[in-house]
Amino acid sequence: NSTPAALAIEAAARMGKAWPYLIKSYENFDAFTLNKIIDWSKELDLDIEQMKTYMKDPNVRKTVADSKKEGLVNGVTTTPTLFLNGRRIEGLFDLDSILSMLEEALLNET
Q1: DSSP per-residue codes, 35-67
Q2: CB atoms within 10 A of CB 47
């Protein structure tokens, strides 16, 4: 299911709603099914036919494939994985955890 999910996120990005779609998918990670792509698109007021078109688009598919290759090269084995100052961080994060990591990184740079 990771490829259809990635295609949906990239399609949403092309429609200007990458972050809302990404957040929706992470909030409902355990409930993901192919039908959820349509449900979440409707919830975010995305054009379903445009989503389907983008998901089949060779450029979108290449973007997703390139991203996956980059992840493999960098040792990514699970999602989500974040990189902060070259450090790989794996697992689910809430917003407060991410902000704390960013603040810590900023403090360590000064």
Answers
A1: HHHHHHHHHTT--HHHHHHHHH-HHHHHHHHHH
A2: 12
Question: Residue 76: phi, psi to the nearest 5?
Answer: -75, 125
CA 4 – CA 8 distance, rounded (Å):
6
- Cβ-contact 99, 106 below 8 angstroms: no
Q: What is the pLDDT of residue 86?
A: 83
pTM over 0.85: no
pLDDT, one tens digit per residue, over 53-64 is: 999 999 999 999
What does pLDDT average to in each consecutive run of 10 residues of the chain (110 residues)?
A: 89 94 85 88 95 96 95 87 85 81 84
Q: Which of 62, 25, 56, 30 is closest to 41 using CA atoms?
A: 25
Comparing CA positions, the residue from 9, 57, 78 lying closest to residue 37 is: 9
Element (H, E) at 87: strand 87-90
